[in-house]
């Protein structure tokens, strides 16, 4: 059964002067334990799609299904990691991590205990009582990711989580994410505009067009799990990258 399924989502924003069509007939799915990426030009509507999945906005038409139930417009059912880490500056690291569990009804003590158990696993031992401003961008992203991971929801949506990091930190974070995910297989929908990132991490990739976003193509990524960094050197990796790149270039030239 599909864990998450979007059925023909359309989204149009109506402003004072004009109507903007952002999403056009988006249908996609994520199976149990699957890592799926959505790649598309910036401004194509990827974050809007996540806001719809999270129930923050209702789509103009179409439906969001979770575990075989229609959950369109319902909040709190999916764990969400936003583009920026969005940590609370007045909460220390362990209590930032505990937040998603507390919101879901877990006791504060149990939530903190779980946070303390996991922080060393993401390389943040000793930072439990520090405040977010002390941490680098990459460390803040790990806190934000851990908060989403420890929530009770079974589907995680990650919106360009590594977009603001430098190239080296970004590679480290990708390897780190794969490692955590391979130990604890959640269903993930991952938004990125990096082709390499999508190919390195995913089981499947949806390629989106320019706004209004349609699905141009769905690709199955053929590399074995657990995935090794040497896939980046394979001829097949380069062929797939070229293929996606040329699809996205065609889109840009139609702007
Ligand atoms: N509430 C809104 N009202 C009007 N336009 C919006 C609103 N939210 C997003 N948009 C427009 O939708 C388009 C897609 O935005 P977004 O989903 O953030 O793209 P992406 O995440 O792919 O970069 C943009 O052109 C943006 O201006
Ligand atoms: Mg976005």
Automatic annotation (TrEMBL):
A molecular function (GO) term: ATP binding
Annotated InterPro entries: AAA+_ATPase (IPR003593), ABC_transporter-like_ATP-bd (IPR003439), ABC_transporter-like_CS (IPR017871), ABC_transporter_ATP-bind (IPR050166), P-loop_NTPase (IPR027417)
Entry keyword annotation includes Ribosomal protein: no
Any Pfam family the entry gives: ABC_tran
PROSITE patterns given in the database record: ABC_TRANSPORTER_1 (PS00211), ABC_TRANSPORTER_2 (PS50893)
Key word Transport present: yes
Residue span(s) of domain ABC transporter: 4-235
SMART domains: AAA
Cited Gene3D superfamilies: P-loop containing nucleotide triphosphate hydrolases
UniProtKB keywords: ATP-binding, Nucleotide-binding, Transport
Protein name: Nitrate ABC transporter ATP-binding protein
